[in-house]
Amino acid sequence: MPAITREEVAHLARLARIDLTDDELDHYAGQLGVILESVAQVGEVAAQDIPPTSHPVPLTNVFRADELRPGLTAEEALSGAPVVDGEPAVEESRFRVPRILGEEA
């Protein structure tokens, strides 16, 4: 006998606003029954002397420490701008890019 009845599946389907046929109700009752039995078996395996954990081994911080490091200056960053018509594509201390929306500046 499945752990969940056909009527319970029909009730869940109504709550979820899912229209299931009679064949689907029978099919899903069997499938959900197998799932519930599997979950119950997992619950039986857990021993009382073993605390629940999210990982089988203790975790340590695997990230590097946050350390302040100097970044690029504006001039250093803009030195990598592409060259267009023999000049770097820089305008007002920013990268110059082609207009894409056709709006007036």
Quick tags:
mainly alpha; two-stranded antiparallel sheet; 105 residues; Histone, subunit A; two-stranded antiparallel ribbon; 3 helices
Please give a structural write-up.
Keywords: ATP-binding, Ligase, Nucleotide-binding, Protein biosynthesis, Transferase. Heterotrimer of A, B and C subunits. InterPro entries: Asp/Glu-ADT_sf_sub_c (IPR036113), GatC (IPR003837). This protein has a domain at 6-45: Glu-tRNAGln amidotransferase C subunit, N-terminal domain (Histone, subunit A, Orthogonal Bundle), CATH 1.10.20.60. It has a two-stranded antiparallel sheet with strand order 1-2. It has three helices and four strands, in the order αααββββ. The longest helix has 24 residues, at 22-45. The mean pLDDT is 85. A hairpin with a 2-residue loop joins strand 1 and strand 2 (87-88). The protein has 105 residues and is mainly α.
Ordered list of secondary-structure elements with their pairings:
Layout: H1 6-15, H2 22-45, H3 74-78, E1 83-84, E2 87-88, E3 90-91, E4 94-95
Antiparallel strand pairs: 1-2, 3-4
Helix pairs in contact: 1-2
